[in-house]
Amino acid sequence: MSDLLARDAELLWHPYSSLSSPSPVRLVRGASGVRLQLDDGAGGTVEAIDAMASWWCMIHGYRHPVLDAAVKSQVDSFSHVMFGGLTHEPAIRLASRLVEITPDPLQHVFFCDSGSVSVEVAIKLALQYQVARGRVGRTRMLTVRGGYHGDTFAPMSVCDPVNGMHSLFTGALKEQVFGPQPPADFDRSMDDPELQSWADAISALAAEHSDEIAAIIVEPVLQGAGGMYPYSPACLRVLRDLADRHGFLLIFDEIATGFGRTGTLFASEHAGVDPDILCVGKALTGGYLTLAAMLCTTEVASVVSNGPGGALMHGPTFMGNPLACAVALASLNLLLSQDWAARVRSISAGLSSGLSGALELPAVKDVRVIGAVGVVQLNGPVDLPTMTDAALRRGVWVRPFRDLVYTMPPYICTPGDITTITEAIVGAVEEAG
């Protein structure tokens, strides 16, 4: 193991890590169900529940027989073909399934390599739409503070410009229009003075910049990597009204929230609001392969298709990869064949009861749960190596960031698994705090 980790340190640049002073990494020897088998450094392995679902995508866990079979079956047919001028059954069937389960107005699917790329495509589509409408000055996005939409250039430009992960690129990115972050708390109604104040502020901003804005883009109900921050569904109704009033498109980034994570299949369902453009990814393939999708309405597709260029100007090499489409279809069918909502409710209840004790710890600022997402927010930055080690000693893998120790576990976790996760997080926070 030591030789492999030494070579890793020499060669590999891990996400958000320094080559000169890299964060520790653990060697994975295997994975099954909700557990990782990690090399223990002495020739053996140690098991840990993956409380992160591998950055939120492994909703069915590892080595699921249904998903394994889907990949193997497709390999026996063909693994990849270009999507320019060609098509195939897995892509067609997956697109049909996505149109069936997403909000009704969304009738057209564009497959992408990753979630970040799907946001790139959504922004390009919105810009092309406005050009086709003759509104050539509408080149900016309206969004809110606290958001995160990916690491490529267009998505970086709509991430929080001050407290996000991309402040180093200020000046190089397109300057977008940022409104205030919605007030915290999922249960606020429009009768709440803070929420009404936010609505007034975002409405004034939209009116001020109406001739510049092509679209509004937000993560509905839960801001993910920007801070694991839930807010009221009523905000989405405000944004839908603003988009309709001013001729903006409304883009929902459901890469983190889609496929049941917040308790509804898509987070927009909490508000009863349909977007013009939807981005999905992460859990789409059950974590097996990278794949994302951008869906849009017929009106948007028709305007762009009949506008300058006559086409959506994007085309990834691995767009619609058959292996990824086959396993994504299997993952969606597996999810929807079960009472996934009851599973998420059970996980949510377990997280709420198990993490509540953390509020008594002096290092803790807040504890919040929405769907199958549990968050412990600290009063200061997380000591990542210390916190990770403390949780691993308790049999759980977590990957904290900023001031957050959180979990987004696989849906197949048992109540006992959730108890192990919550006890490990609370115990690690107490030990490291």
Automatic annotation (TrEMBL):
Residues the record lists as binding pyridoxal 5'-phosphate: G115, S116, D253, P316, T317
* Record flagged with keyword ATP-binding: no
Kindly list the places in or outside the cell where this protein is found, as annotated in its UniProt entry. Answer: Cytoplasm
Gene Ontology cellular-component terms for this entry are: cytoplasm
Positions that bind substrate: W55, Y148, K282, G315, R399
Q: Read off the HAMAP family from this record.
A: BioA
Assembly description? Homodimer.
Q: What does this protein do?
A: Catalyzes the transfer of the alpha-amino group from S-adenosyl-L-methionine (SAM) to 7-keto-8-aminopelargonic acid (KAPA) to form 7,8-diaminopelargonic acid (DAPA). It is the only aminotransferase known to utilize SAM as an amino donor.
Q: What is this protein called?
A: Adenosylmethionine-8-amino-7-oxononanoate aminotransferase
Q: Which organism is it from?
A: Kribbella jejuensis
